[in-house]
Amino acid sequence: MADSDNSTTLSSVTLRQSGEGSVRGSPRADEADPACALLRDWLRAQHASLVLCRLQQRLETRVLGATYPASIDAKVGYSIAYQAEVEAATAALKIQDRLPRTPAQSLPGVVAKLEIIVGADRDIDDPTEFPWPHIESILRDLKEIAGSVPLERPDRSIVQADCRRYKAIAADLVSLEKHAAESPFGQQSATGIDAE
Predict the structure, then answer these.
(1) In this predicted structure, what is the pLDDT of residue 23?
(2) 4-26 pLDDT, tens digit each
(3) Are the C-beta atoms of residues 126 and 101 closer than 8 Å to each other?
(4) Which pTM does this prediction carry?
């Protein structure tokens, strides 16, 4: 009988002591965690960047195969798509920069933070070198204990809206660059800075 008090599993005790207040697998456990929201925003920016990269690659192929008059229009479209991809990737990097300042408030929040770290590294370094296999191992262990953060792909309409937003930013930047390039020296450029 004395041993029956010790039958509670460690993960349940750990979750309750962490102040999470809900059991593993609860669909509401991670909704209020700022680290989980950060992961959702990061995944959204990453997905938009990937979509825009594919668009930019298709337009690059068109530029290379276009005749001269069609090439000019294709180059403008390509420049906008390229800059839009840069804008989306920059948004993802800014989210990554917020990661150290964003506290996890639950084990799913810790999982979310590690998902960003491991996901970002796939684009940068060799994932087979230390410490990445070790960090992925810790991430797998945490998922076994706490469960995974739902990594849902954003709805198509959301991705399209994000891509339109990044393309609008890019179109403005490309237009400013073109205007600045066409401005004679000594005159004020579109940015309001003298070209001298």
Answers:
(1) 36
(2) 343 333 333 233 333 333 334 44
(3) no
(4) 0.70
What backbone phi and psi angles, to 5 degrees, belong to 188? -75, 135
Give the C-alpha distances (Å, rounded to integers) separating 186 from 22, 178, 183, 189, 194: 66, 17, 9, 9, 7
Residue bearing tokens 């509401």: 28
Question: What integer pLDDT is reported at residue 170 of this predicted model?
Answer: 93
User: Between helices 107-124 and 68-98, what is the axis angle to 10°?
Assistant: 140
For residue 151, is it left (φ>0), alpha (ψ between -120 and 50) or beta?
beta
- Of 94, 81, 106, 93, nearest to 31 (Cα)? 106
Q: Cα–Cα distance between 167 and 152 in angstroms, integer?
A: 24
- 194 — phi, psi (to 5°)? -60, 145
Query: What are the tens digits of pLDDT across the range 36-77?
Result: 999 999 999 999 999 999 999 998 888 888 777 777 778 888
